[in-house]
Design brief:
Helix content: 40-55%
Bound molecules: adenosine monophosphate, magnesium ion
Structural class: alpha/beta
Number of strands: 5
Oligomer: single chain
């Protein structure tokens, strides 16, 4: 179902936006090549009122599509956000879901597992919060932490985490075959941009609450994290559940790209309002 797109009236902007899905997708079976991708990439676009309007239109479009998605009720949508500290997972969540009916979406922020969660397999807590048909779910961090932080900090032996790529692919395939559309986004920022954002969390009293002093230790493990991300995205970008590497240094570009890809995906889904279970021609409210 198409819902009116105006793209701030700019054809070249529209053309570029329509390329985001292909440009940023990690091709299945090929390396993610994170280091070769520019976190400041804008594909020639500039921060402008037109770009801001295009993001606003995407967000509005997503809100409208969500209604028919819910009414259609045949499929679910799972959006996975991953990224290093201060990469913009919270900001993306806030922007992307602004226009969506809160009743139609569940957001889960995955923290270090509790004792109960650890006593189960690592996908147990994840499967429980996967979206029902008609629903959207957004994961702020996800089961990928079990091949990221867990690997970087040696929380389980290599033999255990390295088997998880296959398990995750099987799990996601299972979700997809049962009606869930899975979209995964890695918010790719540069080391410099992370330094700026973390410093801001220290300097700005209204951002102090976001600062976890441990983030400074994690930052020292930057290269280890990048290796872990490279492998996770390479091993687990599949036809059915692709990863996207989203340039994240410019927040406006990140919000434009993700809102575009999500709205375009829903638009391509042949969503329909269900046929009424009654004959409207024979009914009248008196
Ligand atoms: P934040 O996103 O700032 O709220 O922090 C959440 C923290 O939980 C991060 O440091 C993650 O690395 C950590 N975390 C999330 N999932 C796991 C996991 N499966 N194992 C260990 N730590 C995790
Ligand atoms: Mg944090």
């Amino acid at each position: 179902m198409l819902v009116g797109i105006r793209y701030a009236g700019c054809m070249s902007l529209e053309k570029t936006c329509r390329r985001f899905g292909d440009e940023f997708r990690v091709p299945p079976g090929k390396g993610a090549k994170i280091a070769k991708r520019d976190p400041g990439e804008t594909l020639g676009l500039k921060e402008s009122p037109e770009a801001a309007a295009a993001t606003a239109e995407n967000v509005e479009r997503l809100g409208k599509l969500q209604q028919v998605f819910y009414a259609d009720g045949r499929r679910a949508l799972l959006i996975v956000l991953q990224g290093i500290d201060a990469s913009g997972k919270d900001g993306t969540t806030r922007n992307l879901l602004t226009g969506v009916n809160p009743q139609g979406v569940n957001v889960t922020s995955f923290k270090a597992p509790t004792g109960e969660e650890l006593s189960h397999d690592y996908l147990w807590r994840v499967h429980k919060v996967c979206p029902a048909k008609g629903m959207m779910a957004l994961f702020n961090r996800s089961h990928y932490e079990d091949v990221l932080v867990v690997r970087v900090h040696d929380l389980v032996p290599k033999k255990v985490w390295s088997a998880r790529y296959r398990q995750i692919n099987q799990f996601e395939r299972h979700l997809v075959e049962n009606g869930t559309v899975v979209l995964k986004f890695f918010l790719h920022i540069s080391r410099d941009e992370q330094r700026r954002r973390l410093q801001e969390r220290i300097d700005d009293p209204t951002k102090n609450w976001k600062m976890n002093p441990k983030d400074l230790d994690e930052r020292k493990l930057w290269d280890d994290y990048m290796r872990a991300y490279e492998d996770a995205l390479t091993e687990c970008s599949t036809e059915e559940a692709p990863w996207h590497v989203i340039p994240g240094d410019h927040k406006w570009m990140r919000n434009l790209a993700i809102s575009q890809i999500v709205a375009d995906t829903l638009e391509g889904m042949d969503l329909r309002f269900p046929k009424p279970t009654f004959d409207p021609a024979t009914m009248r409210v008196k």
